[in-house]
Each structure stands twice: as C-alpha cells, then as structure tokens.
Specification:
- The complex is a heterodimer of chains A (235) and B (310).
- Chain A has two domains: 2-77 and 153-233, 3-Layer(aba) Sandwich (Rossmann fold), CATH 3.40.50; 87-143, no CATH class.
- Helix content of chain A is 40%, strand content 26%.
- Chain A has helices spanning 40-47, 70-76, 93-100, 107-120, 122-126, 137-149, 167-184, 195-201, 219-224, 226-233; strands at residues 2-11, 14-24, 29-33, 55-60, 63-64, 78-81, 155-159, 187-191, 204-209, 212-218.
- The model of chain A has no long low-confidence stretch (mean pLDDT 94).
- Classes of the chains: A alpha/beta (235), B mainly alpha (310).
- The A-B interface holds A 48, 50, 69-71, 74-75, 79-80, 82, 86-91, 95, 98-100, 102-103, 147, 151 and B 177, 180-181, 183-184, 187-188, 190-198, 304, 310.
- The structure holds adenosine-5'-triphosphate and magnesium ion (MG).
- Residues 11, 14, 16, 34, 36-42, 83 of chain A line the site of adenosine-5'-triphosphate (ATP).
C-alpha cells in the first residue's frame, strides 16, 4: 500500500535521511524504531508531504505522492497523527474533531463517525465543549488519534502515540489502535519509543539509525534480535 | 473659581454627554474596524500591517474616481469592498509570502515600504487639483434625535455598518467550515496542513478579509475627514492603540478597544478641565489611559499570554 523507496531528505544543509526504503502492506501494522534523532519523524513528514524528499520516491496505492501537497495526500487517505499531538489547544474537542474531518463534506457521515469514535474514546464525548488544551495528556492523545481517524484514512501514520503517558493509558491506546486495525482494516505505520509495546502490536518492524534502515524483520524476529534487545528492549 | 469642566458637566447637560458618547461610539467603531483588520492579519500571519490604512486610502480614492465617472453609489460601494478584498489578497501573495519565513523585522520593513509606496501612488494619481476632496455618504449628515441626544445620520450609519461587518465576521469565523479552517491556521498552521487545510489559501483569505474590512472603514471615515493621501493616518494610530489595548490577537478585544478609544477621545476632548488641559490633549490623555492599563495587563484586555508559538 505504501512504498518508500530510497528517500533522502534534508533540513537546510543537514541531511537527515540517506536513502530509506520501507514498505507497508495493506492491512498490516508496521513499526519504525530507532534512537532520538534517527530520522523517524522525518520519514513520516516526507510521507505526509510536509517535507519534500531530495531523492527517491513515495508511492501510495501505486501512485506517486512525493510531489503532492499535504492536502492532496490527506484526501487520498493518509492521516498523520504528529509527534507531540499538535492539537488546536484553544479550540474545543468537537472543533478539533471537525478539523480532522476538514476534507470531507458528508455531514451525516461525519456525525456518525464522531459517534463511533465516542464509543472508542468516551471521554471525548464528556469533554466535547472543553478546549483541547485543558485535557490531560492521555485525553489529549486520545483526541489526537480520534482527530486523525476523522478523515477516514486507509493509512494511519502515528508518531509516538504513547510518549509521556502512564503505562495503563498507553496500553489502552494500543488496545484501541489494534481494534481500529482489525475491525476497520486501517493500515498503521507506527513510530514508537516504547519498543516492547510496538513490537507486540506490529507485524513487521524497521530500525533506523542516523537516517538509514539498519535492520528490518518481522516483529517476532526483531524481539529475538540481540542488538534490538539490547538497544531497545533493555534486556 | 476654577473652571473644572470645559463644557457643562454631564449632570447639567445630559444631552451633550449622550451626544459625545454616541458620536464617540461611531468613530470608535471605525477604529474598531481597522483594529479588527490589523488583528485578523496579526493572528493569521504574525505580521503587523502598517499599510492597513493606506490600503484603505487607495481603495477610497479609487471609489472617489468611480463616483466622479458617474457610477451609482451602491455599485461603487460594492466595487470598493471587492477592491479592498482583492488588494489584500494580492499583497499577501506577492509581497508578504516571500518574507513569511524570514526574520520578523523583514516583514516590518516590507509593510512600512508598502505604506510609503501606496501613499506615493495616491499622491501621484490624485494630488493634482484640489485636496482634500469631498467624499459623500449615502447616509447624509442630517441631525436626528435619539432619545437623549442629537446625532447625525452618518454616525448612525457608521454604527449600523460596523455592526453588520462584525456580525458577518463572527458568523464566518464561528459558524462556517471556512472560518474553522482560518482559525485553525491562525492557531497552528503545521497541524492545519495535516488536517488537509490549504494553509496558503487561508492566509491569503485573512489578508483579503482585512483589506475589505479596512476599505469599509475608509469609506466611512472619508465623509468626515475628507479625502487626502494621509486621511487614514490618525485612524490607523487610534486603531493600533485600540488593537494593542484589546489584545493584538483578540477580535473582541479590537472591538472593545476601538469603542473605548473613540468614546474616551470624545469625553476627554469635551470635559478636560479647561484651566489645566485644552481639548487638544484628548489624544495624549487617551493614550495615557491605554499605557496605564497595559502596564497592568501587558497582553491587552483580551489577549492571551504568549507562552509559546507553534
Ligand atoms: N526542523 C528541523 N530543522 C533542522 N533539523 C532538524 C529539524 N527536524 C529534525 N532535524 C534533524 O533531523 C534529524 C532527524 O530528526 P527526526 O525528528 O526525524 O528524528 P526522530 O527519529 O523523530 O527523533 P525523536 O525520537 O527524538 O523524535 C535530527 O538530526 C534532527 O536534529
Ligand atoms: Mg520524532
């Protein structure tokens, strides 16, 4: 479904990606691990069109997207839940969800989707008219994921959804993501610090270091891998 | 005995007081409109548009020429608003966008440059012949009685027009999808992009709306001050004061600030103790009040405290 082929990208003179190739098959969960500054966020930014790669190509459903605008990419069915949530803090929970549905025009469908997401995240219904900035960290992350789902994506990009959350809250979010993947068939490409959770959730994983993929394998194989265990799983 | 009031005290002449308040609200709503235009642009692009008044001036002069050419008044008003809108959009696209991601001072220089440029153009085109030029109002200058006071129909017209503009902006921003996208862009352009909002278009639209609102203010002021290249200068100053006073990022603040400045200006002009200050001290006194308030509330009445800007 998503094919990233040999992409390179820079921030000004600093090159952040040196030829990264990744594939995310339809219906799967693929995770991206790596130390701080490895280029994980940069890869997601290239996929969602926030950053133009200087070389390589990105394909979605066989169509090239690396020259398209973010708006066009969202309309094609890719939704990016960014690092640090990036909610509209001063706007209400409901307005944040409506912004998630910005590319859609089917009022009834949007209403139905909000209802459906309230099933996953009951807290959002309760907090509907509250400014997003007043929610707790865990609630904000739930809102970020819900907002990301409002565009009815077929591919969901998640950048460290468990960052700064208590283990219980983070487990709850992963439970919902699994449900979203299994029941709604939404493909997930997940960047995560918490490698244990990520590998138990994902089918396949990539490890990037300084802008390059250094290992790729099924989650089960990665869990066994000596280096991965030492560096990311801590045993 | 020291003459405390320049004019009869409010309790001796409530009619005069009422007149001053109402005409203050009328000029105040013009300041409010220009302040709103400044706030619209500041919120969405972080730019202080020093050329806001001159953009309105250019539009008003163009309207004067169209009127002279014999176009009917309402057509000209419509064209004027459209022209203000187009000018705002054009300025954003051509000269603001290239400096958008440059240091803030560059943008300041650009809008100051635009100020000088527009002023020169207007002088070049319209300053031959007689200045100032008379600019008529569709409302007329008839005096009418409203309960306590006598005010001109133009003042009432200003109040009504300003109210309509504010209502339209309110509905646009709070009850349409476009408004939602514009507010989101003002808060967090990066995240808005991820929602599929066309951020560039929203920024352009913000400038366009500001241009249109400024144009409306221009055509409301011109009948009072008459038309000359610098006729929006004083208005711009008051509007800046009003915008900062209300909180540079708050549209309701701009409105409250504008009305406050308009009324305060009138009351200071009418009632300052004659033996101490003359009426010409009304501007400094008004600004003094603003400065004092800002000392205690640096972010302005309704502004939010700037903790971080994403
Ligand atoms: N806006 C930016 N300007 C300049 N350099 C940047 C910018 N964003 C990232 N970089 C650099 O690009 C490299 C990759 O950063 P990236 O954010 O993709 O890392 P990451 O793997 O997501 O790290 P983390 O786990 O800390 O989120 C880093 O060296 C970083 O310093
Ligand atoms: Mg990152």
């Amino acid at each position: 479904m998503l094919k990233i082929e040999g992409i390179e990208a820079s921030y000004g003179p600093v090159k952040a990606l040196h030829g990264v190739t990744i594939e995310v098959p339809e219906g799967s969960v693929v995770t991206l691990l790596g130390p701080n500054g490895a280029g994980k966020t940069t890869i997601l930014r290239v996929v969602s069109g926030l950053l133009r790669p200087s070389a390589g190509r990105v394909e979605f459903d066989g169509r090239r997207i690396d020259r398209r605008s973010t708006e066009a990419i969202v309309r094609m069915g890719i939704s990016h839940v960014p690092e640090g949530r990036q909610l509209f803090d001063e706007m209400t929970v409901h307005e944040n969800l409506m912004l998630g549905a910005y590319t859609r025009n089917d009022r009834d469908g949007i209403k139905a989707d909000i209802k459906r997401l309230n099933g996953y995240f009951p807290i959002l219904e309760e907090r509907r008219e509250q400014p997003a900035g007043s929610l707790s960290g865990g609630e904000q992350q739930q809102l970020a994921v819900a907002r990301g789902l409002m565009s009815r994506p077929r591919l969901l990009l998640l950048d460290e959804p468990s960052l700064g959350l208590a283990p219980l809250v983070s487990r709850e979010i992963f439970r919902i993501l699994r449900q979203v993947n299994r029941e709604e068939g939404i493909t997930i490409f997940l960047v995560e610090q918490d490698a244990t959770s990520a590998l138990s959730f994902a089918d396949y994983g990539y490890v990037v270091e300084t802008g390059r993929v250094v290992i790729e394998a099924t989650s089960d194989k990665l869990k066994e891998d000596e280096n991965v265990r030492r560096a990311y799983l801590g045993y | 005995m020291i003459e405390v009031f320049l004019a009869p005290a409010p309790w001796n002449d409530p009619e005069l007081f009422g007149e001053q308040v109402i005409s203050g609200l009328a000029t105040g709503s013009i300041y409010a409109l220009v302040a709103l235009a400044i706030v619209l642009i500041y919120r969405s692009t972080d730019v202080i548009n020093f050329a806001q008044g001159e953009m309105a001036m250019l539009v008003t002069f163009s309207m004067w020429s169209l009127l002279l050419a014999g176009f009917p008044a309402w057509t000209v008003i419509f064209i004027g608003i459209a022209l203000g809108f187009a000018l705002g959009a054009f300025v954003e696209r051509t000269i603001i966008r290239p400096v958008e991601d440059k240091p803030p001072l560059n943008v300041v220089v650009v809008t100051l440059g635009l100020f000088v440029f527009l002023n020169s153009i207007a002088t070049w085109i319209w300053a031959q012949g007689e200045l100032p030029k008379v600019f008529s109002t569709p409302f007329g200058f008839t005096s009418v009685d409203v309960s306590l006071a006598r005010v001109t129909t133009h003042s009432i017209g200003i109040l009504v027009v300003a109210l309509i503009v504010m209502a339209v902006l309110y509905l646009l921003f709070n009850h349409t999808k476009l408004g939602l996208g514009m507010r989101a862009t003002a808060h967090n352009p990066g995240a808005s992009r991820l929602m599929g909002v066309n951020v560039g278009r929203m920024l352009m639209l913000g400038w366009a709306l500001a241009g249109a609102v400024g144009a409306v203010a221009g055509m409301l002021v011109a009948p009072i001050t008459f038309l000359f290249p610098g006729f929006m200068l004083a208005v711009l100053l008051y509007a800046f004061a009003a915008a900062v006073f209300g909180g540079l990022d708050s549209p309701p603040g701009a409105i409250v600030g504008g009305l406050f400045v308009g009324v305060a200006e009138n009351l200071f002009g009418t009632y300052t103790p004659g033996d101490i200050f003359g009426p010409e001290m009304k501007l400094p006194l008004t600004l003094l009040v603003l400065v004092i308030v800002l000392m205690f509330r640096p972010q302005g009445l309704f502004g939010r405290v700037q903790t971080r800007r994403v």
